[in-house]
Amino acid sequence: MTGRSRSEVESEIKETLGLVPHFLAQIPEEMLDAEWEIFKRIELGETLIPNKYKELMGVALHSETKCRYCTLFHTEAAKMFGATDEEIQEAVLYAKNSVGWSVYLNGSRQDYDQFAEELGQMKDYMAAKG
């Protein structure tokens, strides 16, 4: 906790977002400052991963978790950071495909060590091809 009061934190939230969303307003006062700092840094701030890509990951991830709040948030944030409808659809299709492979690999109990070895071989082969 950085020690700011609820009114100070909410003032900053309102200046940043135009309002204090209900989901932030309900956070207990002793946790609000810390939660807002994390939200601001990860969701809104520039990190090593550009915001557009973080939000596309969020769309894909929450398509699987089936959280409609998060799916809506990350879809709109992705658009705000420049993602096209086509990129959003691709992110969702990528998630569908990736989850499907996870189900298959885990469900058929593929040998992990063999999988890792073959992956290394594929990587080396593809890198050599250019």
Verbal overview:
The chain is mostly helical. Helix content is 78%, strand content 0%. The protein contains seven helices and no strands. Helix 4 (51-65) packs antiparallel against helix 5 and helix 4 (51-65) crosses helix 6. The chain is elongated and about 55 Å long. The model has no long low-confidence stretch (mean pLDDT 95).
Report the average pLDDT across residues.
95
What is the general shape? elongated
Q: How many H/I helical runs?
A: 7
Tell me roughly what share of residues is in helical segments.
Answer: over 70%
- As residue ranges, the low-confidence spans are none
Give the structural class.
Answer: mainly alpha
Give the total of beta strands. Answer: 0
Biggest sheet: strands, sense, closure? Answer: none
* Helix and strand run: HHHHHHH
Domain Carboxymuconolactone decarboxylase-like: 46-101
Protein name: Carboxymuconolactone decarboxylase family protein
Pfam families: CMD (PF02627)
